[in-house]
Structures are given as structure tokens and as C-alpha cells.
Design a protein that fits this description.
The protein has two helices and eight strands, in the order αβββαβββββ. It has helices at 4-16, 81-84, and strands at residues 45-49, 57-62, 67-73, 93-100, 103-111, 118-127, 133-139, 156-158.
């Protein structure tokens, strides 16, 4: 995918500054093939709608090399394609993932600015035997004020 180089650069730049590297970011990018494309469809992106009244939608595009791009939005249609098809800078965030049996575990750096801090946000997804992706949970280890969202399953998949 054409975003991989830009996403790698963004992750490396964020991690290269010692003062902004959150201590809980442990899944560093290796560029190795993950085999995710044999478990789920990654030729598009998934959108999960939040359960709360904010109607926030969490969308994620996964790459075979352990990188992903995600965005929070209030749109759930094909207009999101511009976010994932070369628009830079991304309105979302880049991060890394790894597979742990049937669970997809993601890490992304959430930079709230100098005054509010830099955190790692974790999201876990279940991969079913029939190739469906389901949201499990989101959390932060270092931010006690963080209020995790819960998202509806199944997600909408856009090609």
C-alpha cells in the first residue's frame, strides 16, 4: 500500500525523540510479514460505531507488515477513503500491531501536546475462525483519567 512508507516514517520520528517516547510502547515496527491477510480481509478498512451517545466511529486500516492507520470520525461512508488513500498528514494515527493467537493487539501513540502528555492507547480485536474482526477493548496503562469506549460489532467493512 502507498501509505506504508509515510506511516513508517511517522512512527520512527515519534519514537526517535526520547522525551516523547511513552514507556509502554513496546511493539516496535519490524517490517516483517504478519500473515494477517490470511485471517481477515485487509484490502480496505473497518469502521466500528461507539455505543455511547457521541456517535464516534473508529476506523482502522491494517497492513501486512505490522502497521495500521486509524481515525476517529463522525462519518461512516465512502468519504473516509480519502483518509486512507494518500492524504497526508493523516487525520488519524499510525501504530503497530501483533497477533496473539486469535487476538489482534494494537498500540498507537496518542500525543495530546506538551501540556497534556504522550500516551499509548491499546485496542484489542478478536479474529473469528470465519475471518470476522470484532472489537474487544481499549485501554491506556499510564493515564488514569482515560475513559475507554466500547464499540459495536460487527464493523462495517469498506473496500
Amino acid at each position: 500500500m502507498k501509505h506504508t512508507g509515510k506511516c513508517i516514517l511517522a512512527v520512527i520520528l515519534i519514537l526517535s525523540f526520547g522525551c516523547t517516547r511513552p514507556r509502554y510502547f513496546t511493539n516496535y515496527y519490524t517490517g516483517e510479514y504478519t500473515g494477517l491477510d490470511t485471517l481477515i480481509n485487509i484490502e480496505g478498512y473497518y469502521c466500528f460505531e461507539s455505543i455511547d451517545t457521541s456517535k464516534t466511529i473508529y476506523c482502522i486500516m491494517l497492513h501486512n507488515d505490522g502497521l495500521f492507520i486509524n481515525v476517529h470520525t463522525d462519518q461512516s461512508d465512502d468519504s473516509l477513503k480519502s483518509y486512507f488513500e494518500g492524504a497526508w498528514p493523516y487525520p488519524g494515527f499510525c501504530g503497530t500491531y501483533y497477533l496473539d493467537k486469535d487476538t489482534l493487539k494494537t498500540q498507537a501513540i496518542l500525543d495530546n501536546g506538551f501540556l497534556y502528555g504522550v500516551y499509548v492507547i491499546f485496542r484489542n480485536f478478536l479474529i473469528s475462525t470465519n475471518g470476522e474482526l470484532s472489537f474487544i477493548k481499549e485501554y491506556m496503562l499510564e493515564n488514569r483519567d482515560f475513559k475507554p469506549k466500547t464499540y459495536l460489532n460487527p464493523p462495517t467493512f469498506f473496500h
